[in-house]
Amino acid sequence: MGTRILKWLGLDKKSKYVRDYFYTTNMKASIYMSIIVIVLEIWMIIRMTKTIFRDHLQDQFWHIVEKYYSNYFLLLAAGVLTLLFAARHLTGKKWIRWISPLVIALSTAVCVFEIWMISKYDPATVTRTHFNNYVINLCAGIFLIALSGVILSDTKHRKWQGLSVMYVFSFVCLNFGMIISENSYAKGEQILTFLTMELFVICLLIWRPAVGFAVLTVSYHIFFHRLNGLIAFNTGTVGTTESTQINGFTMWISTLIFCISNYNRTLQQALKDENLEKMNSHLSKISVEDELTGIHNMVHFRAEAEKLLGYVTTDKEDSVFLFFDIENFKSYNEKYGFHAGNELLIKIAHLIEDEFKGSLVSRFSDDHFVVLTRSTGAMEKIMKLSGDIKDNQGEVHLELKCGAYQPSGEETDSSLALDRARFACNSIKKHFDRPFRMYDKSLEDKFQLKQYIVNNIDHAIENGFIKVYYQPVVSTENGCICGLEALARWLDPNYGLLPPGSFIEILEEYRQIHKLDQCIIEQVCRDYRGKADAGEPFVPVSLNFSRLDFELCDIVGYLTETAEKYNVPKHYLDVEITESALTDQQDFLQNAMKVLRSSGYKIWLDDFGSGYSSLNVLKDYQFDVLKIDMKFLHGFANNQKTRPILENIVSLTKQLNMISLTEGVETKEQYEFLKNIGCDRAQGYLFSKPVPGEELWSRVKRGELKISPEYSNAG
Ligand code: C2E
Ligand code: MG
Ligand code: MG
């Protein structure tokens, strides 16, 4: 109940935003009010001076000063001070305060005059009310002088000054209204000035209802009390008539109602704006915050890094960009699940943030974080973090990898700097126990190549620099070619022949890989059409797909369209997906693969056995051909375990109704072994390295390579 009454009276506690809103609204209103007052008072002063000369009233000069001029000057001074203060606040221009001496001059004139009047005060000739006026005007004048002095000497805007200006201005306005109306009433005229000033002050400014009520009631009360001590000049009646009192009461109540409704309207608007403001700041907060970890995101990092690098005061020699990668994080996810993986990421994010307090820290993506910090002491922090992460690794071997790049004097491009730090970080991946690498000259060439690849993939495709090479797959049954693997090569005019090892990962990292894979699909289909049109044989080709192909484009749609365009039967096109792409279960990949199979394409599992959860992949997905990773053959001659492992994999493949294929066959001995254990197919340098189509077909023509009878007549 109590709070409701307080609220109703406007005395409840307001937020800073609402208080500031009221304040600014009043400052704006003060501008209009003070301009009106200034113009009016100057006009009144001119008019009065003209009247003195026109009506030869020079002998009554001091009397006129007392009755009119001193009040005009005081109100003018208050108006000028209000205008200058509000204008300085709203425009932010500090020089405006230099107008204060004008206020001081006007107020001093008023004060000097009032002091003179007080000094020669004689109760026999001057009424008590008049004497009170001298004192009030003197006090207001002194207050104005003091306030002007403070405002003049203070370059900062302070709210208490603004409120004082507003109160003194309102007071002078109301007092002016009373004095002038009192004069008018004594002459038998209307009390319009008082009413106008009441309206002016109460309705143009926003007052809390209780304050508005107090100001209105007290001023009406004082005014009518003063009038009641007067005798109307023309009628001779003492005090106010009943009708004047009723009119006064009506004015009082209507002004009060207006004051309250004005307050409520402004309050509603302030609350609405405050909500909007809150929402905005919430939105802008989440726009710079990483959703998962709560630390800053890259939008914030880029903007702040650019600012920092732009400052002349930043010591660039001592600044370093760090790129962090948690190696093996994928395995952690696999072992403990996504939820636990996320928890760990959040923990790591805060570990980094705490370690690099005061520096710029953001999450880049996945398990990658970036920091812009001082070089001094960075190394110790990285080492400490590396230890902290080991403490949290559980049963998975996690390793913190950090690449660093020190920007040179002129650099302001944070993206390029981060790219370099990231590049340095990637260069130590899989280097056991090497947690840190500084970007240096030795990395520069490789980095330039990377930049070249990212920037030139479109150009390379358009100009035919991307070429498909074919590597035969041989059937162990008859030693003939039963398939070809399409492998991309980049024949660059500047760099020469680039193997996929130097561009596939980069294109994946920059999400451009689908362009290359589409280009290879097109070339393979075109090659098929060429051979078929010439009536020559062709064998099924397996295409390597990146898992990103399914995200970045409709690769299945593209494959089907292109096959239709070149009229390639579906059983001539197979799709290889590498095992590492499938380790985390993702519905969209499973669905995409289902669509592929149901569209009539065979799916091969590439590099089987290269990862940690090969068997899980077999459980979760359906394949037609299993490509056993070449690493099984590496120790073939010396490692006795290799043989039983391979034997078991081949027999597992049979149980799961899949065709087995071993890659990387380099010796006859390996081939014989595979044949003996029942591996269906083999691929490797023993038969041929990947070669351009023309070379492959001319070797077939020369009889060096044989095509399986089932395909030798096809076309
Ligand atoms: P992959 O699909 O496992 O391809 C087999 C790789 O092993 C090829 O390397 C091939 O040249 C090599 N290889 C074949 N036989 C032997 C052998 O007897 N001994 C040795 N030491 N190596 C052998 P390449 O052509 O450098 O390709 C590397 C990887 O790049 C491929 O591995 C594949 O994952 C990827 N790749 C190649 N072309 C494409 C493509 O068009 N698209 C996509 N997405 N990836 C591709
Ligand atoms: Mg492959
Ligand atoms: Mg492979």
Query: Can you list the ligands bound to this structure?
Result: ligand C2E, magnesium ion
Indicate the structural class: alpha/beta
How many strand units?
15
Strand content: 5-15%
The backbone outline, from C-alpha atoms, is rod-shaped
Distance from N terminus to C terminus (CA atoms, Å) equals 93 Å
- Poorly predicted runs of 5 or more residues: none
Strand order within the widest beta sheet: 6-7-9-10-11-12-13-14
Number of helices: 25
Q: What's the structural domain tally?
A: 3
Give the arrangement of secondary structure elements.
Layout: H1 2-9, H2 16-54, H3 61-91, H4 100-119, H5 128-153, H6 159-186, H7 192-204, H8 209-228, H9 242-287, H10 298-310, E1 319-327, H11 329-355, E2 360-365, E3 368-374, H12 378-391, E4 399-405, H13 414-426, E5 436-438, H14 441-462, E6 466-475, E7 481-492, E8 496-498, H15 504-509, H16 513-533, E9 541-545, H17 547-552, H18 555-565, E10 573-578, H19 587-598, E11 602-608, H20 614-620, E12 625-628, H21 631-634, H22 642-655, E13 659-662, H23 668-676, E14 681-683, E15 691-692, H24 693-701, H25 709-712
Parallel strand pairs: 4-5, 7-9, 9-10, 10-11, 11-12, 12-13, 13-14
Antiparallel strand pairs: 1-3, 1-4, 2-3, 6-7, 6-14, 6-15, 7-8
Helix pairs in contact: 2-3, 2-6, 2-9, 3-4, 3-5, 3-6, 4-5, 5-6, 6-7, 6-8, 7-9, 8-9, 11-12, 16-18
This protein binds ligand C2E and magnesium ion (MG) (2 copies).
